[in-house]
Amino acid sequence: MPEAATAAAVRATIGDSEFDRDTALTRREPGVYDIDLSAGWTIISAVNGGYLLAVLGRALADALPHADPFTISAHYLTASQPGPAVVRTDVVRSGRSLSTGQASLFQYDDEGREVERIRVLASYGDLDSLPDDVRTTAEAPVIPPMDQCFGPEDGPAPVDGSSAITDRLMLKLDPSTLGWALGAPSGKGEMRAWFGLADGRDHDPLSLLLAVDALPPTAFEIGLSGWVPTVELTVHVRSRPAPGPLRVSITTRNLAGGFLEEDAEVWDGAGRLVAQSRQLARVRL
Amino acid sequence: MPEAATAAAVRATIGDSEFDRDTALTRREPGVYDIDLSAGWTIISAVNGGYLLAVLGRALADALPHADPFTISAHYLTASQPGPAVVRTDVVRSGRSLSTGQASLFQYDDEGREVERIRVLASYGDLDSLPDDVRTTAEAPVIPPMDQCFGPEDGPAPVDGSSAITDRLMLKLDPSTLGWALGAPSGKGEMRAWFGLADGRDHDPLSLLLAVDALPPTAFEIGLSGWVPTVELTVHVRSRPAPGPLRVSITTRNLAGGFLEEDAEVWDGAGRLVAQSRQLARVRL
């Protein structure tokens, strides 16, 4: 079966994939890392906030004694652009089972001065050391089978402008949250999708940081259009994800005063809730 | 009616109350503040995490060009004790409508060296400048009238040890989330209460930071006992609260690997969702 063999051969793996290459950092000195932010993770012309969070998350995984983000909070300060950046990390506390760190990503202005783009605080641990005990009342989102869902490649571009990130994602949106793309938003602040990486790489804690911020804004289904910039995004990684595509469900309940929250849940193929996130974002009314 | 007149006369106000006195800071130099952490906000012997967040929130309100916390994320590093502390703040970015700051609270070890207790990142703005537009699908929690709810004063102490904080709060718990106090936890991770300050002070954005972390742990209703230390707590303040008691609803859906999330919603007397929060906490299984 040469066709299947070829597909298997080109399937990317954790550590050897577009996502890994584009979040790879070069250590300049202890705790300081250089990176060239890829243009491959832009939506319209903005660098995706989840990709940026993964870059900072990878820097902290190197700087801290623990490798897995358990909880990471990011405040987005100024808009990032593709190109050179430096990440500066600080070990706040090293504990036996948890360590806490801080990281900032800077780019350069016309005079070469550093401009801070994002600052994060995070606590890291070892997901594999946790007990297996799960007591959950959370239920996985019900999303139609993938072949009944729709991605950017299935129709005319649902948002203006081209977006490089769509080439790197396997994103299949639940048709019941796609009214906005047909000019008939549901009015409910919900967005659901199957989510993977286009090159077939499986997920790890770092790609979960991307998953929570990669769907179209729930604001589209509320009937708003335009840019919904993130002010703050906090992600809790609750379990190492099983291989295969993820289900991502995002809910907005409260749009008030020009701000909204987006609550994301990420479920893996084994039926585990692997990440929860919440962001505060601005909308133009 | 002399009785009513007396009650009105002793009712504390925003700016002149136990909460304001116990979160008041002395500016040592620009951005650096001294405080004596009050023993009045301890639960068993630990200083309440919401009180500590309010202390840091007040420092940032002074240090930043904006006065209201819109989103504040705290990572709890080591256990705080009543007594002297210093808060060091850093202005990360000053914008027109939002500014971002960082703050850390330190106490002193036996040699007088600073030990960091908590670090926060926060974005501040002006709640009064926001448009009135509200589109929400969130619904206020249904809690029985206050005289059908129960506080620590209504029965034998529900947790071992005395807790000074209960004297400073007006906490009336929904009986349907009080099974744990009678040895019959519901198994559902829910806790709901009417919430106020015992001296009658109305709420402001700073006391909302207290409100989200002042109820008994949801873990009690899941059937767990003991200490549930907060790793990280993020609060979004969405509106300035109206006068009068608040309704606070806390939900835990996913207890896994020795960690759980607590999602809090705070509603004011005018029926507005004034704060949302999520924390990641550890449990002993």
From TrEMBL, chains A, B:
> Taking every annotated instance into account, which residue ranges of this chain make up the domain Acyl-CoA thioesterase-like C-terminal?
161-283
The upper taxonomy is:
Bacteria, Bacillati, Actinomycetota, Actinomycetes, Kitasatosporales
Q: Name the InterPro entries on file.
A: ACOT8-like_C (IPR049450), Acyl-CoA_hotdog (IPR042171), HotDog_dom_sf (IPR029069), Sec_Metab_Biosynth-Assoc (IPR052389), TesB_ACOT8-like_N (IPR049449)
Give the superkingdom in one word: Bacteria
List residues of the Acyl-CoA thioesterase-like N-terminal HotDog domain. 38-123
Q: By what name is this protein known? A: Thioesterase family protein
